[in-house]
Amino acid sequence: MGRISAIGIDVGSTTAKIVGVDEGGELVWKYIEPAHPRVEEQVDRFLRKLEEENGPIDGIPIVATGYGRNLVHQATRKVTEITCHALGVFRQLGHGGTLIDIGGQDSKVIVIGPSGEVVDFAMNDKCAAGTGRFLENTAGRLMVKLDEMGQLALSSEEEVPISSTCTVFAESEIISMIAHGVRVEPILKGLHRSLVKRVVAMVRSVGLVPPLMLSGGVVKNPAIRKMIEEETGQKVTMPEHPQFMGAYGAALIALRGKRRTNA
Amino acid sequence: MLEIPGRKEICNKFREGGGRVAAVMPIHYPRELFRAFGVLPIEVWGPPGMDISHSAAHLQPYVCSMVHNMLAFLKTGGLDCADFIIVPHACDSLQGLGSLLVDFVRPPQPVFPLYMPRGRRPEDVEFFAQEFRKLYDWLSNLTGRRPSDEQLMESILMEERADKALAKLYDLRTEVSLSVRDFYRVVRTRQYFPAEEFVSFVERVIDEYSGNPPDGVPVIMSGIVPEPMEVLDEIQNLGGIVVGDDFACCGRRVYPAGSGEDPFIRMAWRIVHGPPDVTRGDLIEERFEHLMDKVKKTGAAGMIFYTVKFCEPELFDLPDMRRRLKEAGIPSVHVEVDINDPLSHQTITRIGAFLEVLI
């Protein structure tokens, strides 16, 4: 058996991630792909890749998380992304606090206790507002690359308020603004603000326990990070691999289970 | 799954026996009064999964799916088997529905909007009793019957027995082997079984299913209605067991037995002194104490607030209630649903994560 002692798989709505941890719980291998509609096939491929690069995985415990977790038949256990994100971030940052995780389809605010336990949490509704999908949709409409949106938004002094928190209505509002000659950058800034306000509303609903932490794919966007700090008045910290925290937490749970079995 | 006759079956059977049927909207009303007139009240809680395009012309999109569905159900013939329609004023949306039915929709059945007091004072009991006297006269005109006080009292005693049976069923929750969903399917037969059938059915269930209760983290649920009922299966699959509830359609209507000789006062007193209910204007302090009492009695580890979207009365109390519970060391989670949607992944994840916290 190689260096990997436990595996975590996070099948999200936008991306699927796999993580391997060593006996000490350190993240030693990771891989990410856009989420595939045929989850089983994608997970098979992930595991083959892991084997190719790290050796056989027979007997290594696997925990699955994310919205597609129940389709990961290889998993010995399925755990919600709330618990997994909390554990992953706690292990990487070494403290509790309030974690904001903005994913492709949902956003979560998790209050993490001093031992890494989930104390309270809130999730966005089924609506895509307040999630990565909100930005993705509007990026398409504005013909801006997703990974450039944040920088462009921050480059603008001006900010146009977007009143709608609904993705579809926001798109209509943007079309109307473009028709009135409003520049793209102030619209982008307003869009980011709209998303952040939605997420911060969730933070307020559970009650902010500092420090504030961020994870999820959307945190690569610098405007989101900056605006969360502006809206909450709190400095934000981020783990080294913010997109992998769900999978990492899952792997840590798998490792914990293995230790219990071996004890 | 336990075999239980549905509303339609019970409705048809009752009518075949010469009885009449009243379709009753949520939440509180005097069952015994209807039965004294030979009328079986069958409650309408949605039903879920309706096409609300039939109600959209009359109701705004932000009116809750319960009220939308009641109207859509009526307009698509769902209430055709009913002889009367009763709309208690439980909330603004239901009051609106009552007015709509009387003034605009005008279904073939006569409609009675039932006004409710907001409180537990003696004058609230008197007000409600007066409403019941009006309902008595209304039913009298429509049926040609005038049940005597003795007949009313006989009917009251039967309903009190049924409520006692319901209370016993709740007390024995952790001593019967019914799945979470089957338990609530039994509880919900109180919404449409005649009281005498309900009593014998509950007794049979308690006998047949005693012992080996399902294992799981004990939780209490609160809200209007546990729909879609698959949510109860999911809770059990995720390692939980519902050991008590504060659902408007279930636990909030375990009315105490009354006393006194005036049947109208007795019927009114029973409802006014039932478990605290936000739609009846009870204070958050009373609701909190009631929930804490349930937590202590059942050993529940947490509360799941399972509300219908746009249900204002339920949502008014919620932030304060959750804060109070948190301060008392009882974790809670809030899940909002639309009763026309299938059970969503988000709902399952929220409940799953909450149970992981409790485990």
What percentage of residues of chain B falls in helices of 4 or more residues? 40-55%
Quaternary structure classification: heterodimer
Shape of chain A: globular
Extract low-pLDDT stretches of chain B. Answer: none
Radius of gyration of chain A: 19 Å
Largest beta sheet of chain A: what is the strand line-up?
Answer: 3-2-1-4-5
Mean pLDDT over all positions of chain B: 96
Name the average pLDDT of chain A.
90
For the report, how would you describe the main beta sheet of chain B?
4 strands, parallel
Low-pLDDT residue intervals, each spanning 5 or more residues of chain A: none
Order of helices and strands of chain B: HEHEHEHEHHHHEHEHHEHEH
CATH architecture of one domain in chain B: 3-Layer(aba) Sandwich
The computed structural class of chain B is alpha/beta
Strand order of the largest sheet of chain B: 2-1-3-4
Q: Characterize the biggest β-sheet of chain A.
A: 5 strands, mixed
Q: Over the alpha carbons, how many angstroms does the gyration radius of chain B reach?
A: 20 Å
Number-wise, the strands of chain A total 10
Provide the β-strand percentage band of chain A: 15-25%
